[in-house]
């Protein structure tokens, strides 16, 4: 295994009875990266991260995390990483600083450093004035920051975050990602799972996972080049009505709402733009603007999932 990688796995698989939750995943994560594991609920993200954290033994495959074998050194891995789940794993009936003290003990932070590390967490999380408050009384964004601080009390080189922004408001989510970026700049490797497409843009590199399989991997800009079709963005009055008309028009391969606009998947943007504009105008739907745009991560993910579904259908055919 390459010492330049914080995480390196080959053919990692986890089976539960007849169900293949993770299907032969191979990937590498460079040290100091923010690596995103993107996919819908039930895709296998959490199962993968639990194997990497030493919480679940793989059914087959091989890998190393922080230089330790996922098959034989799971307990050692746990001591060298930080882990934060979407449920935050905090104790609501303890105060903020009592939670920090508890996790300092769990992670065996040297007693001489515990005061310093506690102060760092309180400052990082903005909770210095709330240190005596019960954790259960905190809003979701504050709990999230506290959970992050507890996960890195022992200064791990690799931090695993399993859908850490689930259930928090957009502002708290953005502030949380600012903290992740700061940790990465200080040299911490961050491996984060998410199903929020906009969060993918914050990652240095991404792996897209669907139905247990990794269907693409690369930097966000690279993944946007994988779609063979063009994307047209339409500004049109009554977008819901325009959507219904285009779905049955035969002029586009796919169309979806994208904010107040529509994104249409077409083979040739130049030819389709004129046809689509004329089609909608004939139906009394004025097109205010139509232009080819770079695909969003949502466009990329939907397109790649559809390709994967078609591939699986072909595999299933006799």
What does this structure look like?
The protein has 318 residues and is an alpha/beta fold. It folds into 2 domains: 5-223, P-loop containing nucleotide triphosphate hydrolases (Rossmann fold); 230-294, Alpha-Beta Plaits. Helix content is 36%, strand content 28%. It contains 10 helices and 14 strands. It has a 6-stranded mixed beta sheet, sandwiched between helices. The chain has a 4-stranded antiparallel beta sheet with strand order 2-1-4-5, with helices on one face. Strands 12-13-11-14 form a 4-stranded antiparallel beta sheet, covered by helices on one side. Strand 9 and strand 10 form a beta hairpin. The protein is globular, with a radius of gyration of 23 Å.
Condensed summary:
By secondary structure, the chain is of the alpha/beta class.
Structural class: alpha/beta
Number of domains: 2
| Strand arrangement, major sheet | 6-7-8-3-9-10
Q: What is the tally of beta strands?
A: 14
Largest sheet: 6 strands, mixed
Low-confidence stretches: none
Number of helices: 10
* First and last CA, distance: 39 Å
In the CATH hierarchy, the third-tier topology of the largest domain is known as Rossmann fold
CATH superfamily of the largest domain: P-loop containing nucleotide triphosphate hydrolases
Q: Helicity range of the residues?
A: 25-40%
**What's the pLDDT, averaged over the residues?**
89
Name the helix and strand elements from N-terminus to C-terminus, one letter apiece.
EEEHEEHEHHHEHEEEHEHEEHEH
What integer value in Å does the Rg equal? 23 Å
Shape: globular
CATH architecture of the largest domain: 3-Layer(aba) Sandwich
């Amino acid at each position: 295994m390459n010492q330049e990688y914080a995480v390196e796995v080959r053919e990692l698989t986890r089976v539960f009875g007849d169900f293949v939750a993770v299907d032969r995943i191979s990937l590498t994560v460079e040290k100091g990266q923010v690596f995103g594991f993107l996919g819908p609920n039930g895709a296998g993200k959490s199962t993968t991260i639990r194997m990497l954290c030493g919480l679940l033994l793989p059914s087959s495959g091989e890998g190393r995390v922080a230089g330790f074998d996922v098959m034989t050194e799971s307990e050692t891995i746990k001591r060298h990483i930080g882990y934060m789940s979407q449920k935050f794993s905090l104790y609501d009936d303890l105060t903020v600083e009592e939670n920090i003290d508890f996790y300092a003990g769990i992670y065996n932070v040297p007693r001489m450093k515990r005061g310093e590390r506690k102060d760092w967490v309180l400052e990082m999380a903005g909770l210095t004035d709330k240190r005596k408050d019960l954790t259960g009384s905190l809003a979701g964004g504050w709990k999230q920051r506290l959970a992050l601080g507890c996960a890195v009390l022992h200064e791990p080189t690799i931090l695993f975050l399993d859908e850490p922004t689930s259930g928090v408001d957009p502002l708290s989510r953005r502030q949380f990602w600012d903290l992740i970026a700061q940790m990465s700049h200080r040299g911490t490797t961050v491996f984060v799972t998410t199903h929020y497409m906009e969060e993918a843009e914050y990652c240095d590199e991404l792996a897209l996972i669907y139905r247990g399989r990794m269907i693409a991997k690369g930097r966000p800009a690279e993944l946007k080049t994988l779609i063979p079709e063009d994307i047209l963005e339409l500004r049109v009055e009554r977008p819901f009505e325009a959507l219904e008309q285009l779905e049955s028009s035969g002029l586009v391969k796919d169309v979806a709402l994208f904010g107040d606009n529509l994104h249409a998947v077409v083979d040739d943007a130049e030819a389709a733009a004129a046809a689509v504009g004329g089609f909608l105008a004939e139906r009394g739907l004025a097109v205010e603007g139509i232009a080819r745009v770079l695909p969003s991560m949502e466009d990329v993910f939907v397109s790649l999932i559809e390709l994967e579904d078609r591939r699986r259908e072909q595999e299933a055919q006799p």
